[in-house]
Amino acid sequence: MKVKEARYAELQQFLQANLPNVRGFSGALSVGVFYNAEQQDLMLFEEWLSKEHHQAYIQFISENGVMSQLLSFMQDAPVITYYGREVL
């Protein structure tokens, strides 16, 4: 996701306040934040017990306003991609 110009410091504060809620949501296994300052790209890497757990979380934050707050820092809406973990 592209972060809006000069908004990353505010976004950091928002994430610090809200990531404990994500990590405590039913089915959340882990959440990591990666940022490329040169490109102003943010990636949220999340592991969930199931796709359904994650979708329930997305619905919850869409209804309570957290998603719209997050999107206010971004140039575009996030692209969500689901992967299955492979054990090789």
Describe the structure.
The protein has 88 residues and is an alpha+beta fold. It has one domain (8-71): Alpha-Beta Plaits (2-Layer Sandwich). 41% of the residues lie in helices and 19% in strands. It has helices at 8-23, 51-64, 66-71; strands spanning 28-36, 41-48. The protein has a two-stranded antiparallel ribbon. The longest helix has 16 residues, at 8-23. The mean pLDDT is 96.
Strand content: 15-25%
Helix/strand class: alpha+beta
**How much helical structure, as a percent, in the residues?**
40-55%
Give the number of domains: 1
Architecture (CATH level 2) name? 2-Layer Sandwich
Uncertain residue segments: none
CATH topology description: Alpha-Beta Plaits
Average pLDDT level: 96
Strand order of the largest sheet: 1-2
CATH C-level class is: Alpha Beta
- Number of strand elements: 2
Measured between the Cα atoms of the first and last residue, the distance is 30 Å
SS field, number of helical segments = 3
- Computed over alpha carbons, the radius of gyration is 13 Å
**Biggest β-sheet, characterized?**
2 strands, antiparallel
Assembly state (oligomeric) = single chain
